[in-house]
Design goal:
Length: 141
């Protein structure tokens, strides 16, 4: 019985180590935003696929306090594929975008591709490909 338990333990450890090794194969994506209007609140950044874009949380979500109008965040171990990044200056730290009565955003936002057309952001303008190499983006609000 001890031999079976020991064999199962080794099998489990082997499985977990392989899963971690596969996860470590992803790329890191560093996002810098250096034109935040003030240091109030926080900046929230999310990494999206076409299935999650504008539909809720991303596949990875990060947030950071702001220092001197600048933040830098890194998504780690991102699997190869097509993604987009959305960023929000949550000035009042209520974890959502606030809108004026006419529907216009009260808080600054941006996305990969830095497309700032009128209307809601779309995945096509913000998308990019992730392969094995690390990426860096500078997003403007």
């Amino acid at each position: 019985m001890k031999t079976v338990a020991l064999a199962l333990a080794f099998l489990l450890v082997n499985f977990l180590s392989q899963a971690q090794a596969q996860n470590a194969d992803g790329a890191d994506i560093t996002v810098t935003i250096d034109n935040v209007l003030n240091d109030n609140g926080k900046v929230m950044v999310s990494l999206h696929t076409t299935d999650t874009f504008m539909k809720g949380p991303g596949v990875q979500n990060l947030e950071s306090t702001i220092e001197n109008g600048k933040v830098t965040l890194t998504f780690e171990n991102v699997a190869p594929g097509t993604y987009a990044i959305m960023a929000l200056h949550d000035e009042n730290a209520n974890n959502r975008m606030d809108y004026q009565s006419n529907g216009m955003p009260k808080e600054s936002y941006g996305m990969s591709g830095n497309e700032m057309s009128f209307g809601p952001p779309n995945f096509v303008d913000a998308k990019f490909e992730v392969a094995a190499e690390d990426l860096e983006f500078n997003i403007r609000f």
